[in-house]
């Protein structure tokens, strides 16, 4: 099962300890074949909508910065519970904040 784990931005600046702990976590998940992709996201983005034959393109941002997704990890695990446990471990490393987990369907 694949899950997209997304985190929202916080006001807390990252320090060397955080980078070291996250580096170990990422290495562990990569070596286990769990982590498929990870990255940060720009705060704005572009919204593309369609209605009939009309395509509209609007530059972001669209929400308050604290509501936007700041980063993601795509993981492949055996169950939703395993994805939740990985997210718990992530939150323990990065501290206070919010993450969202969604199952990814398809190949």
Automatic annotation (TrEMBL):
Species the sequence originates in: Actinoplanes digitatis
Superkingdom of the source species: Bacteria
Name listed for the protein in its UniProt record: YCII-related domain-containing protein
Pfam families in the cross-refs: YCII
Stated family: Belongs to the YciI family.
Domain YCII-related: 1-90
SUPFAM superfamilies given in the database record: Dimeric alpha+beta barrel
Gene3D superfamilies attached to this UniProt entry: Dimeric alpha+beta barrel (3.30.70.1060)
């Amino acid at each position: 099962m694949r899950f997209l784990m997304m985190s929202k931005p916080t006001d807390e600046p990252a320090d060397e300890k955080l980078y070291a702990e996250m580096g170990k976590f990422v290495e562990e998940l990569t070596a286990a074949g769990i982590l498929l992709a990870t990255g940060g996201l720009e705060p704005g983005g572009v919204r593309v909508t369609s209605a009939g034959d009309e395509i509209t393109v609007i530059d972001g941002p669209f929400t308050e910065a604290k509501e936007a997704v700041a980063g993601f990890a795509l993981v492949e695990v055996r169950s939703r519970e395993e994805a939740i446990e990985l997210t718990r471990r992530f939150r323990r490393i990065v501290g206070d904040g919010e993450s969202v987990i969604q199952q990814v369907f398809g190949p």
